[in-house]
Design goal:
2 strands; single chain; about 300 residues
């Protein structure tokens, strides 16, 4: 105890304390320097939030400078085994252990940042490709529906109308096959609100005034078919004109719905990407689960 107390008292000597502080500082800085790539630490976009002082510090290679310039003499204190207490050796060991720990810690943190950034990049690429594909599908369905409607309105030949109808229904089949997949990807990549805007099962009960894009296409589709059937069956002119006006109105509305929907999902997706929220998982149930709950579970309970 007497020896330890003596060593501790010697450690409190300002010169020796300054030396030990320098040793520990160099150990910590060396650990940080070895764990991070000093050339890329400040250049990578995901690491731009580092304080300016730290970036300037590493850019100037101050760690290497300190390691090469610090001598075993601080404030006129030269190391002499007679003047160097055993507790200082213990502190040196502790400093080494701290350096090893910090090396592992900073290396692990760097790996986590790079891994998260890579996953974010992959999700952004996936989302961008999905929005492009969905935009193509929406644009193709509207274009072919409009072309089919124009052919019927212009009283083109039956062969021409049938050909355009066939092309249109081919896209309708693709649309129906992928509607639930697209709704779910919108829920995961953007948010539940966008998914419902694309496909809302409650539109089954909204008649001729649906809110979702899918059902607006359904209403426009049926209106064009009714108009064609009215012309084909030679119904009264007043009936045909009424159906023409109604079909024109619904086709025009679905046109605007397509444009506003695509603008909305693109803006929201980019905002989530900028805020690094593409990996955030929805905390609530999806639209299908909620619709099922409203339609069947509550009904069975009652």
């Amino acid at each position: 105890m007497h020896l330890l107390r003596r060593d501790f008292n010697q450690l409190l000597n300002p010169r020796r304390f300054a030396y030990l502080a320098a040793v520990l500082s160099i150990s910590v800085l060396s650990a940080y320097a070895s764990a991070a790539d000093l050339d890329t630490f400040c250049s990578k976009p995901q690491q731009q939030d580092a304080p300016q002082e730290i970036r300037d510090f590493y850019n100037k290679r101050c760690v290497d400078y300190l390691k090469s310039q610090v001598e075993f003499k601080i404030a006129g204190f030269s190391i002499d085994p007679k003047n160097f207490p055993p507790i200082a050796a213990l502190m040196g060991v502790i400093g080494t252990l701290v350096g090893v720990y910090l090396t592992s810690f900073f290396a692990n943190q760097k790996w986590r940042r790079e891994t998260k950034f890579q996953i974010q990049s992959d999700r952004f690429k996936e989302g961008s490709e999905f929005i492009d594909d969905l935009s193509d599908l929406i644009g193709k369905r509207y274009f072919l529906l409009s072309r089919y409607f124009d052919a019927v309105e212009a009283s083109q030949t039956q062969v021409a109308i049938d050909e355009k109808e066939k092309e249109y229904f081919k896209v309708v089949k693709t649309w129906n096959f992928s509607s639930r997949k697209n709704m779910n990807k919108l829920r995961l990549l953007i948010d539940v609100e966008c998914a419902i805007t694309f496909l809302d099962f409650d539109d089954d009960f909204r008649g001729q005034n649906p809110l979702s894009l899918h059902y607006k296409f359904v209403i426009a589709h049926r209106a064009v078919q009714d108009f064609r059937n009215a012309k084909a069956s030679a119904q009264p002119v007043a009936v045909i004109d009424t159906k023409l006006k109604y079909a024109t109105k619904k086709v025009e509305r679905v046109n605007w719905a397509c444009s506003t929907f695509l603008e909305s999902i693109t803006t929201k997706f980019m905002k989530r990407a900028v805020n690094l929220q593409l990996l955030k998982v929805p905390e609530t149930a999806g639209p299908a689960a909620e619709a099922f709950e409203r339609r069947f579970t509550q009904h069975d309970t009652n």
